[in-house]
Structures
1.
Amino acid sequence: MNAMNFNFLRSEPLPCNGRRVAVVGAGPSGLAAAGYLGGLGYQVEVYDKLPSPGGLMTFGIPSHRIPTDRIEDGVRLLERKLGVNFHCSTKVCCSAPLHEEEGDHFSADMIGLGEMVEEHDAVLICTGAWKSRRLGIPGEDLPGAYSGLEFLFPIRAARYARPDVSVPDVAGKRVAVIGAGHSAMDAAHSANHLGAEKVSVLYRRTKRDAPCGTFEIDRLEELGIEWMEKVTPLELTGEDRVRVVKLSCADGNETEVPVDMVIIAIGEIPTPPFAGKLGLENIRKGDVRWLNMTSIDNVFVAGDVLTGPSKIGKAVESGLKAARSLGNWLDLRGESLEASSEDGESGRR
C-alpha cells in the first residue's frame, strides 16, 4: 500500500536554513505545509491535540475511505526524510475551554499561542473544524442524540484504548441520521456496519441537492438504508432518552420517526485559537498584507479553520499556499534584518 505523499516540493530537503516554524494541527493542510516547509530546510515542529497525526482523515473518516496505514506511512516519511518533529496530545490554548471540542480529552499538554509565537520564527495554524453544528431544536441534548463527530470520532479513536473513548452501542437499534454531506453518509454506513436494526437518513431537500452526490445515496439504498427527503426535523422527544424525531414534510404535514439513536451530521465549524485576535474575517475578504497572514505578524492560517469544512484536496491546497506565503515572508524579513545590520555596522565605522 502506497504512503500518502505530503512532500510536494522535493524528495530531498535543502540544507537547514536555521529557521524554526510551528505548524498547529496535523490534518491535511498542516501535513502538506509541513512537507513543503521541511523541503525548504526549515525545522518544522507540528503540534496536534490528538494521539496521532492525520486530523479528521485519521479520526473522522472511516478507514474504507482513507486507510490509516497510508497516513501513518506518509507521516513517517516526513519524519525521516525531512526531519519534521511531531508533538501529539498537545493542544494550543484556545478561547474555548478544554474538552469543548471533540478529541480534546486526548490532550496531555497545553501550550499558549503567545509562547509558541515567541519560540518560533513563524507559526501556521491549521487546527481544522472540530466543533459540530447544532440544529437548534428542542431535545437536541437528550441522551442518544449525537453530533456527527461525537459518533464517528470514537469509532476511529477506540484503538487507543482509553476508558473515556468507547464505540457507540448501535447493535439492534433504530438510528436516524440527519444531513446529506459526507459526514452523514459516513455515519449512516458506520451505524449499518455496527449492526443497527434500521438506519434512516433524513434530509430537508432532494437527492439531487445532497452535497454528497447521488452516487453515495444510491450506495446507501443498496445496503437497505432508508432515504427520506424533503423532511425537516422539528423536535427530538423522549423522557429518559431520544425516542422520536418529529418532522415537517414538504406537503405541510408532520410525521414522527421512532428511534433509539439520532446522529446530527450537518457539518462542523472552525475553532481557531484566539479567533478574535487573528482577524480571520479580514483574511477571508482578502484584506491582508501577506496571503494567509493573520493580524499577528508571524502567524499564518490555512485549511478548514479558515474556510470551514472542505474536501481534503482544498485543505491541502490551502496549506501549501499558506506555507509558501510564510516562507516568502520569512525570506523578505531576513533580508531586511541583514540590511539593517549592515547599515548599523557601516554607521559605526
Note: The chain has eleven helices and 17 strands.
2.
Amino acid sequence: MDKDTRDKLIEAATPLFAWKGFAGVSIRELSKAAGVNSALISYYFGGKEGLYADVLESSLVYLLNTLEKIHHSGLEPERRIELFARAVSGLHKQKPFLLRLLQGEFVNPTVCFENIVKPYFEKIIVFLPAAIEEGKNTGRFDQDVNPFYAAMALSSMVNFYFVVKPLADHILPQDENRDEEYIRQVLKIYLSGVRRHGDA
C-alpha cells in the first residue's frame, strides 16, 4: 500500500470535510485537492464514505489512545484531570479540524455517527468520570460532585475555547502562551471547585 498517497488523501480531505460537510464535497474535489486520480479514493478507501470515515477515526483513535495511557498511569486523580485537559488542548492543535468534523456529525449525522463517533465517545467518556470518582472515594473531592456532570463541565470548558478561538484571537491578550495560560486557569478554577471544602 502506498502510504504516501493514502496520507495525502486524508490530509487533503480533512479540511474539505470539516468546512463543507460530507455531502458538500465531491470525489472530484477531493482528488483535485490531493493531486491524485479520483480512482485512488475507491482503491484505498472503497469510496468517499470510507475516506470520510478514516478522517474521523484517525483523530478519535489518537485521542482514545492518549486518554487510555493517562487513565492507566497510576497517577493521582488531580494529575490525571490535568493531563486530560492538556491532552485535549494538544489534540486541537494537532488536529485543528476535529471540532468542526464532530460538529457536522452532531448537526447532520452521517452513518459515521453511529459507526464511529458514538462508539469512540462511549469509550472516551469513562476516563474523566473515573478520575473524579476516585477523587471522591479517597476523600480528595467533594462528595456532592457528580462525576459525569463534572466531566462534562471540564470538557466544555476546554473545548469551548477552541470553538471560539477565532473570536478569542481578537478579544483576548495577544500572548504566544495564551492557550497554555487558558488551560492553567481552567484547571485552577475547576480543581478548586471539585476539591473537598478546606482542601483547595
Note: The chain has a mean pLDDT of 91.
